[in-house]
UniProtKB/TrEMBL annotation:
Catalyzes the isomerization between 2-isopropylmalate and 3-isopropylmalate, via the formation of 2-isopropylmaleate. Heterodimer of LeuC and LeuD. It comes from Corynebacterium urealyticum (strain ATCC 43042 / DSM 7109). The gene is leuD. The keyword Amino-acid biosynthesis applies. Residues 1-32 are annotated as: Disordered. It comes from the Bacteria. One of its GO terms (biological process) is L-leucine biosynthetic process. Residues 47-162 form the Aconitase A/isopropylmalate dehydratase small subunit swivel domain. This is 3-isopropylmalate dehydratase small subunit. The lineage of its organism: Bacteria, Bacillati, Actinomycetota, Actinomycetes, Mycobacteriales.
Length: 247
């Protein structure tokens, strides 16, 4: 088995991030349009449902990848929710040898990462940057709890896999760069070539992703009860005003 290149203590931190105006040029990858749509339909608020996904798997052989490494703080000044792909791993993407700069992985949508992924400060932008770049799935033997929670609320599948399986995945990808992986959330499996691995996803997160429900969607499942409560609420108490619609 190929020895992993990650350190069990701490990964090498990238060089200081450049300001957005000095950011590396947009990757040559064929950028995948942000697929996770939010809107109302017959009273429900949904994000794209996740059942199965097949896409190129990219190996990130680093441990302790914190949210500042995923997207440096200098990129968090935007007031929109999309467009963060240029900041994804900005410090590392300065190097032409970085995995996402390699032709085989420029269109990757499954990230196979080392342990302790998403540690550090809680910033939803880390999840948004991964999604904006085109990732649908991140696999790791350990995640920071906050990152994992943010992922499920945004529609990104962050699933645990045994470290020995992660290392085997790295080996298979190294032998066949550009190989595709199929992740089946219903069966909780990930298939790479002739190998099938178990992935760990708790029942609640699995249900939310398969139903395509973010926090607003969950709330609106009780819209009838909410409306009934508001109708009986005394008029002198604060109330929610109807949403304004654009002319």
């Amino acid at each position: 088995m190929v020895a992993p290149t990650w350190s069990p203590r701490r990964s090498q931190r990238p060089p200081p991030s450049r300001a957005p105006s000095q950011a590396p040029p947009t990757s040559k990858r064929e950028h995948v349009t942000h697929k996770f749509t939010h809107g109302t339909h017959e009273g429900s608020h949904t994000m794209e449902k996740f059942h199965t996904h097949t896409g190129v798997a990219a190996p990130l052989m680093r441990s302790n990848v914190d949210t500042d490494q995923i997207i440096p703080a200098v990129y968090l000044k935007r007031v929109t929710r999309t467009g963060f792909e240029d900041g994804l791993f900005a410090g590392w993407r300065q190097s032409p040898d970085f995995v996402l700069n390699q032709d085989a992985f420029k269109n990757a949508s499954v990230l196979v990462a080392g342990p302790d992924f998403g540690t550090g400060s809680s910033r939803e932008h880390a999840v948004w940057a991964l999604m904006d770049y085109g990732f649908r799935v991140v696999l790791s033997s350990r995640f920071a709890d906050i990152f994992k929670g943010n992922s499920s609320k945004a529609g990104l599948l962050a699933a645990n896999v045994e470290q020995s399986d992660i290392e085997l995945m790295w080996k298979l990808i190294e032998q066949n760069p550009g190989i595709e992986m199929t992740v089946n959330l219903e069966d909780r499996t990930a298939t790479l070539g002739s190998h099938t691995f178990n992935i760990e996803v708790d029942d609640y997160t699995r249900w939310r992703l398969m139903e395509g429900l973010d926090d607003i969607g969950l709330t609106l499942r009780n819209e009838e009860a909410i409306s009934e409560f508001e109708a009986g609420r005394p008029s002198f108490k604060p109330k929610t005003l109807p949403a304004r619609t654009a002319d």
